[in-house]
Amino acid sequence: MPGTVLLLAASPVGRGRLVDAVAVLPVLAAVAPGVLSGTDTANVVELADPLDPQAVLTRLRAAAAAPGPLTVFVAGQLQLDRRQRLPHLALARTTPATVRYTALPWHWFREELRLRPPGTTTLVLDLHADAETWDQLRDRPLDCGRGTTVYGRIAPPPGRRSVGRPSYMKAVATVLRSGHRPPLERLHEEALGRVAAEEAVGLELRTPAPPVAQDAGTDPHAAITAAVEAGRHTDADALAARWEVAAVRAHGPGSAEALHWTEVRADLAMLAGDPVGSCRTWLAVAAARLAAGQGPDAPEVEAAVDRAHHQWGRIDDEARARELGPALAELRSRVPGRRQGALEDVRGRLSRLESVAG
Fold first, then answer.
1. CATH code at 248?
2. Is the CB of residue 31 less than 8 Å from the CB of residue 70?
3. 89: closest CA among 141, 43, 150, 21?
4. Dmax (CA) of the chain
5. 81 CB contacts (<8 Å, ≥6 apart)?
6. Greater confidence, 327 or 222?
7. For residues 69 and 150, what is the distance between their CA atoms, to the nearest angstrom?
8. Residue 124, strand partner residues
9. The CATH number of the domain where 168 resides is what?
10. How far is CA 223 from its chain centroid?
11. Which domain covers residue 195, as residue numbers?
């Protein structure tokens, strides 16, 4: 089965730049796609200094939905938003004051990759952190989600008036340009050795591949993914529903375990081409998280409302869109999210729908 490769290199333009991230892309692009992926053939998507976090999210979401192995190479810099102190991947227009709106929240990687079967997803990271982020990472490691293989490093901020280099990623690309891809553990060790000979490595990132269950009965995510890939969407939802019921019985309806499976079902509805069901389920997830005491700017709450909003926009049935619109508008008034004008977008479309029906 072909693999998928996403090459992402980003850093701010101007004085806020800590690393010349895009400098590594020509070296990575010179590597054969199959070698980058570790498969016979692969589809490669390259993002160089993107401007819009939503555009990056769209590419990441498409890559995460592709069947077969996924390898994501990320070079760039990390910064914290001032409100929640959450790490973000800075993009071309990011400044310290605009991180929340112009950078890519790191937890979006975790959210988009969470449904992939264990052992099929690899992150190769070469990141530089500003001073605030560097201090925080010592106590709160970067969370890339369960089931994902992670190798790389996070470097401290470079010296004053200097720009760092994506040395680790360049070393990885140099090894791969030989046409041979060694096991990831060995590739990582060789790349680190080359970096250490020239500069401080920083924080090493090493999360080997999780074990893959040999029975689908013990690995429901893999079984669900297999059903979706086979086009058996009803079977996939039924399996997720059984796990959702079991989680509610064991942990309660508002528990993290139960909400996880509700979110899985929302994603499954999207994959099945059912935006009404997906929107309705994401609205329920957002309401449940708020009722459980999570704040309107909590990443999980924002993600649920954003996804409900996205799916609502894909509903062609005007009656169904009118039915779900008021609930979305009410949630949007409490959870404005990161996209400016989101509430106005909902109210505007809802007004047009009601005038047509009127």
1. 1.25.40.10
2. no
3. 21
4. 72
5. 88, 99, 100, 103, 105
6. 327
7. 14
8. 73, 151
9. 3.40.50.1460
10. 22
11. 3-207
What's the token pair of residue 258? 């139960």
Which tokens go with 262? 């509700």
What is the amino acid identity at position 204?
E
Q: Which residue has the tokens 């998280």?
A: 289
- How many Å apart are CA 181 and CA 34, to the nearest integer? 9
Alpha helices in 38-116 (DSSP H): 53-65, 99-102, 107-113
- CA-to-CA dists, residue 310 to 105, 108, 340, angstroms: 18, 15, 14
Task: Note whether 136 and 236 are same-domain residues.
Answer: no
- One-letter amino acid identity for 310? H
pLDDT digits over 163-208, tens only? 999 999 999 999 999 888 899 999 999 999 999 988 888 899 988 8
Q: Whose CA is closest to 205, among 248, 132, 150?
A: 150
231 with 166, same domain: the answer is: no
Helix, strand, coil % over all residues of the chain, rounded to 5: 50, 15, 35
